[in-house]
Design brief:
Catalyzes the reversible isomerization of glucose-6-phosphate to fructose-6-phosphate. It holds the Pfam family PGI. This is Glucose-6-phosphate isomerase. It is found in: Cytoplasm. By secondary structure, the protein is an alpha/beta fold. It folds into three domains: about 5-70 and about 305-430 and about 450-485, Glucose-6-phosphate isomerase like protein, domain 1 (Rossmann fold), CATH 3.40.50; about 100-285, Rossmann fold, CATH 3.40.50.10490; about 490-530. About 45% of the residues lie in helices and about 10% in strands. It contains 20 helices and 13 strands. A six-stranded mixed sheet has the order 1-2-13-12-10-11, with helices on both faces. The protein has a five-stranded parallel sheet with strand order 6-5-7-8-9, with helices on both faces. Helix 4 crosses helix 14 (about 310-325), helix 7 runs antiparallel to helix 15 and helix 12 (about 275-285) crosses helix 13. The radius of gyration is 25 Å and the shape is globular. The chain starts with 7 loop residues before the first helix and ends in a 30-residue tail after the last helix. It binds 6-O-phosphono-beta-D-fructofuranose. 6-O-phosphono-beta-D-fructofuranose (F6P) binds near residues 155, 213 and 353. 6-O-phosphono-beta-D-fructofuranose (F6P) binds next to loops.
Length: about 550
Amino acid sequence: MFQLTRSVTWQALKQLQAQTADDRIRDYFTADPQRFERMSLRVGGLFLDYSKHHISDAVLDKLLELADHSALVQRRAQMFSGDIINVTENRPVLHTALRNLGDDPLMVDGKDVMPEIHRTREQIRRFSEEVRSGEWKGYNGQRIRDVVNIGIGGSDLGPNMACRALLKHRHPEINFHFVSNVDGTHIQKVLSRLDPATTLFIVSTKTFSTQETLLNAKTARRWFLENAGEEADVGAHFVAASTNRKAAMEFGIREENVFEFWAWVGGRYSMWSSIGLPIALSIGFDGFMDMLEGAHEMDQHFLNAPNSANMPVLMALIGIWYINFQGAETHAIVPYDQALHQLPAFLQQLDMESNGKSVDIFGHPVDYKTGPIVWGQTGSNGQHAFFQLLHQGTRYVPIDFIASLKPEPGVEDHHFALLTNMLAQANAFMEGSQESSRLDPYSCPGNRPSSTLLLDELTPRNLGALIALYEHKVFVQGVIWNINSFDQWGVQLGKRIAGEISERIDEQSQDFDGSTQGLLKLVREHFTARQTGDDGATPTEAPAKKATQGKKKA
Ligand code: F6P
């Protein structure tokens, strides 16, 4: 059995870590004035500067050897061609097929899936054009003015992040809302501002079985029926993005308004599928296709570029260097772009739900670190929140700075301040304090690494490329760690126990630990009757924003 940590390359990297431990990053630049030119890379509208890393030429060469000696070439070919690489769920992993704009057949279980991908894309085009043009009418003949996406995890984070990132491309007459938390105040707050006659709900759920989404969808439907339409009108105000057509239709969604996708699309990789419906409604189908094209362009780069000039591979190897050889436990994502403020949350699920694993693809426990804790917040806000720890704390946190170069019209001065702050921070993390001695409390040790990723402009195409870049970075790390990045068994346990607890809210069950029993007793004092969410006790009192013409005229 292959032992990653016993490989010659891994051992050589451990030696290099010791040999370079006292290196100063800034000295790498002194020794090689061309370092920036050599350690930066452009792919389409994205530019990566990876020169401010604690990585000597020898370390980089050895990291590339790690990739060369891994199963990357084979596993990548398997993923793109639809082989079953999600071995525990016995599924292919084909989010790349969703942005494949060609017609070459792609066989899954002996069937070419490209026709149904094209068919669903056409269904999305038609629907988004109907809603955006006003052709799609609500129960009393009005156009849609608010779209509410109800979903959680990958059925929320991707479309939510993209709609926010591309807000300047949004349809001027339609507002978009995202409800995800089972906390009833989330949906209550959204519904209180809406007119049921002009609201469209998208129930986004791959399985159509996620408790939070189903409860929110039922509450939305109850609110609609109490404030406006009748059962027959649900179809004009509710559509679904799901793999479970049957359950969607049982909910009351018309068959033609179920936007299907497939089991071989992972939730956290699904924004290119029907789960991306809010994006197409917001920025238009053409914009959605631009996003797919940007991702496809990154796919082609990932497939064809040599490892030494492959952006996802390089980012993956840099991460492995810090995680497995420098002891970094976390990785910070700091977009200097308010439009990308939801990117850290999206990347958290993408990375941590993919590589938060401790057994390899054979089920054997690994003896090395795997996925890091991914976190972050926009700059310049982070400078006033957690940068102190990053500058002078005891922890080693590699940072991805992300920004777009082109300013929005009218705020060029702000954008200049934003970008100069980012460059200053990246420099300060690397250089540290120059003048003061390292003993005084004001000095910053420096030598703290970062990458800088610049988008020419925050466009649908460049956002698509950016997301695909991180998808493939996560994939490469998973391949080198020999783990399955595409299942998520760890989230099933909590779901099961939640069901058991909610079923026993009324009884003193000895099945739970003393803490849970004690806490349940406190909770029980506030819930005299069993709260199943179907007894009307969930929040439906949210009044419609205004009674348009009330219920349909008799
Ligand atoms: O977090 C577990 C998970 O299954 C995610 O992978 C998924 O994105 C989310 O829950 C929502 O699942 P669904 O889209 O089936 O409602």
